[in-house]
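4.2 Preliminary Data

To establish feasibility before requesting continued support, the project team ran the inverse folding procedure on a target of 389 residues. The structure was first converted into the token representation described in Section 3, and no sequence information of any kind was made available to the design step. The complete token record follows.
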């Protein structure tokens, strides 16, 4: 069988201080062949402005007993504090920013910008493994029930924040998500602005609910459906039988039998962990079933309309959120049509300082903006957070 090679140029393999990165997957998840206009309905689920009917899109009842808590780690004053070694009270009274990684990634991917940011401004960073990834998988102590979609991912975050006590005045002041994580961040603020029932945690007042963040930083998440190449990669690795005998075998098989670029194959091998128990070999550090369902959810999200909902219809000033969309200058998926759709959102106002929706471009960065231009990204975020409303 002749297989079409997975091209390095298409998948934007990147090199960073941690070696080969999963740029190909992150880029694919940000790419789009369907650009949504500000008022266009999504294929399956619509989001109406919350001034009229409310943004909440879920009737799931919050339950600390039934919902799993996500794995996390802290970055405090530029230093990593693993989940197992932190007392939340020791984190102090500084404001908190959440970091959400991309598909098949994990919290470690965003450590560097989180460290640099917390060194520059008085804020702590809480890095989460989203459901189905790294230490937040069904192979860990938590079990994640379907459906596996963005709403479920947000409910996981709500549960984690309630469990840690970051509600009311201690609610995260900002959220930063890369690629898939950017989409989840948008869903998060969209639901909070709608006073979602999942957020109440048994109470109804502001002291027991998570408050909307002042700022949302979306890193190179392109509106529309996932690029076909990401399905190609997911289908390829899903076809392999587990356990996998060795990382070298996986790399060789992906290159020789599936036409995968060497860098991509090496990245996939880095996503293996040794099987637990008596079984020999390796398994994935992510849950492929959950990953596939999350990708299928891309077309359900009306990205542009949700930005308009959050930033155009003004809530009380104390609950106003500003969305910052950071685009990679080298990502060709930012087409004129997509940019035009985003610029037509009323809150954009030509990127005026008072705009509640702002767009920034890091010209020398590819999709992994936090690797390709970490200094530029952190400078943008630090300046924005200093000037936050």
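Position-by-position output of the design step:
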């Amino acid at each position: 069988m002749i297989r079409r090679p997975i091209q390095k140029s298409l998948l934007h393999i990147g090199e960073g201080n941690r070696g080969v990165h999963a740029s190909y997957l992150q880029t694919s998840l940000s790419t789009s062949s369907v650009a949504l206009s500000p008022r266009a309905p999504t294929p399956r689920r619509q989001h109406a402005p919350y001034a009229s009917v409310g943004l909440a899109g879920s009737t799931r009842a919050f339950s600390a007993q039934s919902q799993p808590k996500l794995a996390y780690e802290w970055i405090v004053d530029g230093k990593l504090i693993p989940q197992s070694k932190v007392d939340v009270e020791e984190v102090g009274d500084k404001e908190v920013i959440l970091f959400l990684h991309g598909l098949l990634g994990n919290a470690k991917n965003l450590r560097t910008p989180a460290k640099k940011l917390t060194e520059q401004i008085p804020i702590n960073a809480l890095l989460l493994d989203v459901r189905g990834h790294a230490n937040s998988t069904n192979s860990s102590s938590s079990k994640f029930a379907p459906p596996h979609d963005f709403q479920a991912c947000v409910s996981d975050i709500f549960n984690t924040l309630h469990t840690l006590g970051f509600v009311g005045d201690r609610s995260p002041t900002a959220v930063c998500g890369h690629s898939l994580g950017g989409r989840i961040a948008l869903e998060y603020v969209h639901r909070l602005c709608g006073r979602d029932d999942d957020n109440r945690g048994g109470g109804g007042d502001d002291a027991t609910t998570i408050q909307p963040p002042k700022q949302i930083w979306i890193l190179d998440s392109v509106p529309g459906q996932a690029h076909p190449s990401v399905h190609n990669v997911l289908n390829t690795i899903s076809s392999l039988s587990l356990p996998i005998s060795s990382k070298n075998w996986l790399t060789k098989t992906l290159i020789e039998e599936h036409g995968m670029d060497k860098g991509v194959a090496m990245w996939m091998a880095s996503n293996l962990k040794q099987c637990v128990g008596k079984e020999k070999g390796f398994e994935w550090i992510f849950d492929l079933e959950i990953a596939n369902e999350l990708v299928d959810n891309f077309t359900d999200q009306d990205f542009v309309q949700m930005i308009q909902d959050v930033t155009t219809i003004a809530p009380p000033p104390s609950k106003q959120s500003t969305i910052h969309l950071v685009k990679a200058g080298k990502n060709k998926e930012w087409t004129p049509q997509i940019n035009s759709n985003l610029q037509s959102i009323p809150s954009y106002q030509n990127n005026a300082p008072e705009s509640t929706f702002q767009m920034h471009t890091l010209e020398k960065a590819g999709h992994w903006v936090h690797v390709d231009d970490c200094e530029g990204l952190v400078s943008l975020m630090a300046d924005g957070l200093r000037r936050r409303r």
